[in-house]
TrEMBL record:
<comment type="function">
    <text>Specifically catalyzes the decarboxylation of meso-diaminopimelate (meso-DAP) to L-lysine.</text>
</comment>
<dbReference type="GO" id="GO:0008836">
    <property type="term" value="F:diaminopimelate decarboxylase activity"/>
</dbReference>
<dbReference type="InterPro" id="IPR009006">
    <property type="entry name" value="Ala_racemase/Decarboxylase_C"/>
</dbReference>
<dbReference type="GO" id="GO:0030170">
    <property type="term" value="F:pyridoxal phosphate binding"/>
</dbReference>
<dbReference type="InterPro" id="IPR022643">
    <property type="entry name" value="De-COase2_C"/>
</dbReference>
<feature type="binding site">
    <location>
        <position position="365"/>
    </location>
    <ligand>
        <name>pyridoxal 5'-phosphate</name>
    </ligand>
</feature>
<dbReference type="InterPro" id="IPR002986">
    <property type="entry name" value="DAP_deCOOHase_LysA"/>
</dbReference>
<feature type="domain" description="Orn/DAP/Arg decarboxylase 2 C-terminal">
    <location>
        <begin position="27"/>
        <end position="363"/>
    </location>
</feature>
<feature type="binding site">
    <location>
        <position position="227"/>
    </location>
    <ligand>
        <name>pyridoxal 5'-phosphate</name>
    </ligand>
</feature>
<feature type="active site" description="Proton donor">
    <location>
        <position position="337"/>
    </location>
</feature>
<dbReference type="InterPro" id="IPR029066">
    <property type="entry name" value="PLP-binding_barrel"/>
</dbReference>
<feature type="binding site">
    <location>
        <position position="307"/>
    </location>
    <ligand>
        <name>substrate</name>
    </ligand>
</feature>
<dbReference type="InterPro" id="IPR000183">
    <property type="entry name" value="Orn/DAP/Arg_de-COase"/>
</dbReference>
<keyword id="KW-0028">Amino-acid biosynthesis</keyword>
<feature type="binding site">
    <location>
        <position position="365"/>
    </location>
    <ligand>
        <name>substrate</name>
    </ligand>
</feature>
<dbReference type="Pfam" id="PF02784">
    <property type="entry name" value="Orn_Arg_deC_N"/>
</dbReference>
<dbReference type="GO" id="GO:0009089">
    <property type="term" value="P:lysine biosynthetic process via diaminopimelate"/>
</dbReference>
Length: 410
């Protein structure tokens, strides 16, 4: 690890000064990075009619969603609440794909009433959907292609034991239901998991879609899902988007010739669009030497950033307050009463109490997976856009914690 931890600047503003202005802990996003990721996808897939459906669940702040919309993206929502947040952000129903997993039919009805396309993920849902709507409401089918892929078991969604989608082996049952209720299927979808590196996996998924698609004459799009891997540290492999774009587009164009019509190619990137835009800044509460390890205890924990404990995820850490200090080994840990290691065995410029540390790549599945565990307040969010750092979510206050409690007269 090199000693030089250069000052991090977002659109010319020092990250440290943003954190000082808005306080700690705080999630800070670089809007330009989100837009440039969208552009890199658009150029990688320039030879096909591409639609980007940003996976809202990665980071669902309304200002971020507005930025995605401005950059030409649509959205994928996995709950009715996400559908409604997307509408708050100004997305038309036609720009929203609703991809539920095992939800109550009431929620599907609500989505249909809002005019949002439903991505059908089970045979019972297909039966109920068909019986109620027949051919009046175009729909998509989430196919489980039985491909094992993804960074780890918790984020693999396309293998044979996964709960997601309808098994490709059940295609005959799917076709029976489509015929029985005359359901208008306009799209087929797969999402095999997250942190997928190889173009080959997307191509294998594509081949499952292409073959299945020949059974559906009314298609307007094929949706390849998300799951592109980004680099979490220097030298980490990341999905080569240009390669994926070239290979998948070529296969897709060939398929369209065979299908007889040009379809749209949809992608649902979550992490790829927002991970690298995000910086999570915390403050060192205590530096605690023990016989074996020096711990830095920070004013945060798995309640704000669960990825290290949940997925063994690696987030690079910088010491913003002492970038040129002597490198020493630390474990950066949270204040939660539970083992919540945020970064293990890291060489950091000497940390003192009060130093601001930053976790990089914190845009995706950071605040969107945060909680109030230990009755802690959730952090503020700040967006840097057009050279200005602006608050896009207030830091929670104590009243937020107890707002919905009903205190009995005991
Ligand atoms: C989570 C999810 C995505 C995005 O996954 P990333 O790994 O963040 O790209 C896309 N589509 C669906 C249906 C999802 O559930």
């Amino acid at each position: 690890m090199s000693a030089a931890q250069h000052p991090i600047q977002l659109q010319g503003i020092a990250l440290e000064s943003i954190a000082q202005e808005f306080g700690s802990p705080v999630y800070i996003y670089d809007g330009e990075k989100i837009v440039s990721q969208i552009k890199s996808l658009q150029s990688a897939f320039a030879t096909v009619p591409l639609k980007i459906k940003y996976a809202t669940k990665a980071l669902s702040n309304i200002s971020i969603l507005k930025l995605v919309k401005k950059a030409g993206g649509g959205v994928d929502a996995v709950s009715i609440e996400e559908v409604r947040i997307c509408m708050e952000a100004g997305f038309a129903a036609s720009e929203i794909m609703y991809t539920p997993s095992g939800v109550n039919f009431r929620e599907v009805k609500e989505a249909v009433e809002l005019g949002v396309m439903v991505n059908i993920d089970s045979l019972p849902l297909m039966e109920e959907f068909g019986a109620r709507y027949g051919n009046t409401m175009p729909a998509c089918i989430r196919i489980n292609p039985h491909i094992m892929a993804g960074g780890n078991a918790k984020i693999s969604t396309g293998h044979i034991q996964s709960k997601f989608g309808i098994s490709i082996q059940q295609l005959p049952e799917i076709l029976d239901l489509v015929k029985k209720f005359d359901i208008k299927i306009v799209g087929l979808h797969i999402h095999t998991g997250s942190d997928i590196l190889d173009a080959e996996i997307f191509l294998r998924g594509g081949n499952v879609l292409f073959e299945a698609a020949m059974n559906f004459p009314d298609l307007t799009f094929l949706d390849f899902g998300g799951g592109f891997k980004v680099a979490y540290k220097a030298g980490d492999p990341a999905t080569d988007m240009a390669e994926v774009g070239t290979k998948v587009s070529a296969a897709f164009n060939e398929f369209c010739d065979k299908y007889g019509r040009k379809l749209e190619l949809w992608l649902e990137p979550g992490k790829f669009l927002v991970s690298e835009s995000g910086y999570f800044v915390v403050e060192a509460n205590v530096v605690k030497k023990t016989p074996q390890i020096t711990f830095v205890g920070v004013d945060s924990g798995l309640n704000h950033l669960i990825r290290p404990m949940m997925y063994d995820a690696f987030h690079d850490v910088y010491n913003l307050s002492n970038p040129d200090g002597e490198l020493k080994p630390y474990n950066v840990v949270g204040y939660i009463c539970e083992t919540d290691t945020l970064a293990k065995d890291r060489m950091l410029p000497a940390v003192s109490r009060g130093d601001l540390l930053v976790f990089k790549n914190a845009g995706a599945y950071g605040i969107s997976m945060s909680s109030n565990y230990n009755s802690r307040l959730r952090p503020a969010e700040v967006l840097v856009w057009e050279g200005k750092a602006q608050l896009i979510r207030k830091r929670e206050v104590f009243e937020d914690l107890i707002r919905n409690q009903i205190v009995l007269d005991i």
